[in-house]
Amino acid sequence: MHDSVYDLAGDDPRIAKSLRASLTKLAEGPDGLLKEMAEGVLHGEIDLRQAALSEAYGNEIGVALDKFTVYYDTLDQDERNALAGQAEEQLDVLLDGPATLSRSPQE
Asked: Which residues span the domain enclosing 17?
């Protein structure tokens, strides 16, 4: 994965893993330009920050963010809080693994 992803994540390994998971999902998806960009970042060929600011990929990223913003704006505060809670749980799973993996062998 390109070093720019780790720079964007700061010191939070959950964010780095979340970015990797998101890029992997894009790389496996149908969108040609976002797929190409994600594959390039995952293979260390493209700087994520530069890709986001480029004409080649920036517009596609902007369209995707606009779609999310429209969706997010339709949510009430309870739904937004639930979404934030789900995101936090997903970050915890990415860092620590699912809680079900901690069961003892006797169970």
From this structure: 3-98
